[in-house]
Model the fold of this input.
Amino acid sequence: MQRRLFIRQSLLAIPALYVGNSLLFASCRKDDELKPGNWRGKVIVIGAGISGIYAAKQLMSLGIDVTVLEASGRTGGRIRGLEGFADFEIELGAEEVHGKRSEWYNIVNGTPGVSFNEASSEDYFYIGNVLKSESAWAGNSVLTQAKTFENTARNYSGVDKTVHEQAIAQGINPDGYEIINAYLGNEYGASNNVLSIKGITEEDQLWESGDDNYTLKSGSYTNVLKHHYADVINKVKLNHPVTQISYAGNQVTVTANGTNFVADRVIVTVPLAVLQSGTIQFSPQLPNAKRNAINKIGMGAGMKVILKFKDRFWAANTGTIIGGPKSAMYWTTGLGKSNTALLTAFVMGEKAQYLSSLGNGATNALLAELDQMYGNSAATKAFTEAHIMDWGKEQYIRGAYSYAIVGGGISQRRELAASIDNKLFFAGEATHTAGHNSTVHGALETAIRAVNEITKA
Ligand SMILES: Cc1cc2nc3c(=O)[nH]c(=O)nc-3n(C[C@H](O)[C@H](O)[C@H](O)COP(=O)(O)OP(=O)(O)OC[C@H]3O[C@@H](n4cnc5c(N)ncnc54)[C@H](O)[C@@H]3O)c2cc1C
Done:
């Protein structure tokens, strides 16, 4: 199964089945069906990203008394839109629906005012200081080798090592390293020098939601959430950062903003990096296996920098620009739906760490890179404004999304997902144990699992 996360191979092209105007609804994995049991009691959900919102919605529909505590001043977590910057809402977090065999796909597809994009485009590659389209590079050995590596990397069966170590072992031409990093390290929310090749193989072989990616032509994910989950969103207690979870007694006491909330069961959906930060105290301490798991899954820096220009200096058919040393990739945001000239730099791992350290200076670094690629100060001359979304600097997110590190793997995700004493339950993208981690549909599937566990327990 070729899992393609955030890379738009032939960007936006949608090889989907159409019936009239609507895409065919697809069935989900068997494990992702809601099969709630009869338990009824009081539940606290911590975090109002997609996993928290979806879990709360299902519990509420069962008549269960639910309180949702959200640390920040907004709902949606890593689903967030930027309004007013262009003539459409720009997705600052999740942007693509990965595959159609998921409940998330069905939800998005079933939202009034939301449609999928059908524009097609071509990828451009920056190799040896030259930028050309994929077709213009046809036969180039660096590109061919890098693409072959990417296509076979997720069939790896040797000892655990990083993607970069494997590229060296296979004698990959260093001119292709940036391309491989864009395809793998960056795609998985990291860099090749920390991403486990065994880990991505393991995840990929479990991936079941399908290989096609869908972006929105109209509507936004925020609208999808508002349309389906207004009842949950309206009852979320915003600005309630949870600092303590005490689960020694029959019930669980959750402390947020100096107030104690008491429930029979709690679902923790906060991002992995929040658990890693130790800003939530558990009493008693989490079991050793759980604490080890928290540290054996990676989550690091990740940014989107949205760059607006007076006009396009790139070729009209451009989808993705891959291989720059500063930004692993840029994509032409709004292609197929807007005339605003926008590029999004999608940067993860060590490149994001570096750009993040520059603060607002990240914009100039990216413009300089684009100037170098296109020549004649094209980017600087056309630039009007930028919006930097630095997920690592978000106090209650602290990074992009989880990824496999050497020595980690799905077994660690299982430990992370395991409930404790029938009182503490864990959901959120990092707790997905069947390869859909790091995605919206995966996060939603963990909510289904947690609701099934809670109501059966
Ligand atoms: C730049 C970027 C691009 C992405 N692109 C895609 C994509 O194209 N397709 C895709 O499928 N996925 C994508 N993802 C991943 C996807 O966004 C996430 O996997 C998913 O949204 C995670 O949902 P979640 O509910 O697990 O976590 P979150 O959405 O992070 O929700 C967790 C919530 O917990 C809250 N919280 C944290 N600490 C506390 C506390 N102490 N007390 C109370 N609340 C707390 C947070 O504020 C947050 O609202 C992308 C992510 C990023 C960052």
About this structure: The radius of gyration is 22 Å. Residues 34-75+236-298+398-456 form a domain with the FAD/NAD(P)-binding domain fold (CATH 3.50.50.60). Residues 440-456 form the longest helix (17 residues).
